[in-house]
């Protein structure tokens, strides 16, 4: 079994995370329960920052908050001195409520509304990552209205196809995101933004996809960007002060995954940027990255309670847990794979192969297929590892399931940071039909 961060087996043969017994957590807070290893998140954040510092370049590491957004997470990210990437007014609202410094917030999205942009501009956040010409027009209108030159990055698609799941690819030409570099939209957007009295063009952004194991894609994207920077320098005298290469650094969910250490992605990126900047005789731009998954993914573990079983002779054994696609849609959506263990009997020998089913009314609601476990019994606590990114964040109330609670654990202490939803929460916004009497 592979242990992430502070996870280990304690002397009761239970899974322990952050010095806290997960079986005690399950008893106290119920299941399904998301448990986050705070020390591991801090360690990842520091690794990214320290690598940039060692490379001697100006940098910002912005946590891509879509991976897991909550007040506590934003407070933690702020404690670690990271910046924050938000993609909606809702994420921005949560960040501001968490007291996140406005100047370190970057606003992304391919369809930001007038109201969302106005919200960001009134708050004077650090920068808006502009995705399309419609947004440029909205920003110019808002800049006039609020007499503020809006700091922007332009998101471009460099035409790089990273090797990952089709649904999470973003840097290829046929993408809903950004200005395309190949067909000239990128040039047009840069020329416009650079000359606009309403926009302060800080630089360029690109993001080539998610759960990427090779550094080649990032290096290729950097080269493509620098080819363009060379022409923008000659034709417009525009040289970006900031180069944001997005996120996408892969993590280990199962033994099939072979990620590089976070520092290696950063080092190779920086080396390429330094050499390209030197060739063009320009200053090394400030380098920004936006890791989401690689900051929180392996820091999250979900605890479930085992309920029913179904044995199909010569076919399969289904073991059902008290959550499923409503708290983790990734297996159903991307055929994502995870590892799991019985948190209450960690060292028990593996005796059977079972498939873990969720409890939603959907055949596709399966969390894991054919995993080796000790003989699983009702009331066992199943721990699914590496669920910290795009798990809780993509949870839903399908089948009127309640969103789970979330606890942060660190140095032997547990802190409830998101309460489990209640039935009242489910109907909070409902008004029902008007009475006919
Ligand atoms: C623009 C942008 N930045 C950052 C991220 C974070 O990606 P990851 O969680 O893979 O690091 C994403 C998601 O893929 C994204 O779309
Ligand atoms: N939600 C995706 C990643 C999305 C990346 C967002 N740009 C996942 O779980 O892998």
TrEMBL record:
GO terms for biological process: lysine biosynthetic process via diaminopimelate. Gene3D superfamilies: Alanine racemase, Lyase, Ornithine Decarboxylase, Chain A, domain 1. GO terms for molecular function: diaminopimelate decarboxylase activity; pyridoxal phosphate binding. Pyridoxal 5'-phosphate binds at residues 248, 290-293, 390. The modification N6-(pyridoxal phosphate)lysine is found at residue 66. The active site is at residue 361. It comes from the Bacteria. Keywords: Amino-acid biosynthesis, Decarboxylase, Lyase, Lysine biosynthesis, Pyridoxal phosphate. The keyword Aminoacyl-tRNA synthetase does not apply. Residues 33-388 form the Orn/DAP/Arg decarboxylase 2 C-terminal domain. Coiled coil: none annotated. InterPro entries: Ala_racemase/Decarboxylase_C, DAP_deCOOHase_LysA, De-COase2_C, De-COase2_CS, De-COase2_N, Orn/DAP/Arg_de-COase, PLP-binding_barrel. Its cofactor is pyridoxal 5'-phosphate. SUPFAM superfamilies: Alanine racemase C-terminal domain-like (SSF50621), PLP-binding barrel (SSF51419). It catalyses: meso-2,6-diaminopimelate + H(+) = L-lysine + CO2. Substrate binds at residues 293, 330, 334, 362, 390. Residues 40-296 form the Orn/DAP/Arg decarboxylase 2 N-terminal domain. Pathway: Amino-acid biosynthesis; L-lysine biosynthesis via DAP pathway; L-lysine from DL-2,6-diaminopimelate: step 1/1. Homodimer. Specifically catalyzes the decarboxylation of meso-diaminopimelate (meso-DAP) to L-lysine. PANTHER family: DIAMINOPIMELATE DECARBOXYLASE, GROUP IV DECARBOXYLASE. Belongs to the Orn/Lys/Arg decarboxylase class-II family. LysA subfamily. This is Diaminopimelate decarboxylase. It comes from Priestia filamentosa.
């Amino acid at each position: 079994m592979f242990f992430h961060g502070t996870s280990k087996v304690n002397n009761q043969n239970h899974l322990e995370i952050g010095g806290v017994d997960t079986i005690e957590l399950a008893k106290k807070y119920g299941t399904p329960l998301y448990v986050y290893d705070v020390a591991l998140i801090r360690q990842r954040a520091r690794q990214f920052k320290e690598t940039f510092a060692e490379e001697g370049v100006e940098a910002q590491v912005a946590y891509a908050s879509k991976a897991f957004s909550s007040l506590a997470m934003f407070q933690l990210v702020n404690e670690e001195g990271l910046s924050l990437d938000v993609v909606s007014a809702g994420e921005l609202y949560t960040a501001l409520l968490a007291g996140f410094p406005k100047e370190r917030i970057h606003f992304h999205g391919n369809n930001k509304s007038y109201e969302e942009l106005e919200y960001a501009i009134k708050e004077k956040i650090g920068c808006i990552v502009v995705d399309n010409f419609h947004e440029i027009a909205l920003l110019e209108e808002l800049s006039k209205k609020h007499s503020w030159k809006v700091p922007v990055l332009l998101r471009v698609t460099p035409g790089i196809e990273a090797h990952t799941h089709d649904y999470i690819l973003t840097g290829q030409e046929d993408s809903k995101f950004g200005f395309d570099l190949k067909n000239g939209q990128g040039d047009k957007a840069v020329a416009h933004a650079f000359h606009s009295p309403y926009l302060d063009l800080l630089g360029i952004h690109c993001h080539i996809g998610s759960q990427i194991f090779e550094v080649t894609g990032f290096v290729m994207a950097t080269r493509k960007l620098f080819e363009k920077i060379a022409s923008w320098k000659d034709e417009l005298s525009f040289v970006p002060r900031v180069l944001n290469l997005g996120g996408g650094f892969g993590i280990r969910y199962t033994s099939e995954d072979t990620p590089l250490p976070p520092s290696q992605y950063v080092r190779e990126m920086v080396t390429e940027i330094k050499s390209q900047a030197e060739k063009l005789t320009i200053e090394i731009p400030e380098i920004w990255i936006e890791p989401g998954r690689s900051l929180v993914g392996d820091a999250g573990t979900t605890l479930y309670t085992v309920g029913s079983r179904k044995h199909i002779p010569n076919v399969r054994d289904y073991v059902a847990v008290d959550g499923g696609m409503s708290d983790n849609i990734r297996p159903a959506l991307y055929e994502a794979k995870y590892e799991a263990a019985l948190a209450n009997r960690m060292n028990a020998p593996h005796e059977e192969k079972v498939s873990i089913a969720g409890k939603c009314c959907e055949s596709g609601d399966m969390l894991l297929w054919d995993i080796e476990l000790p003989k699983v019994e009702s009331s066992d606590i199943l721990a699914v590892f590496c669920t910290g990114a795009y798990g809780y964040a993509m949870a839903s109330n399908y089948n009127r399931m309640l969103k789970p609670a979330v606890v942060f654990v660190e140095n032997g202490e547990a802190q409830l940071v998101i309460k489990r939803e209640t039935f009242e929460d489910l109907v909070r916004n409902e008004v029902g039909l008007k009475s006919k009497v």
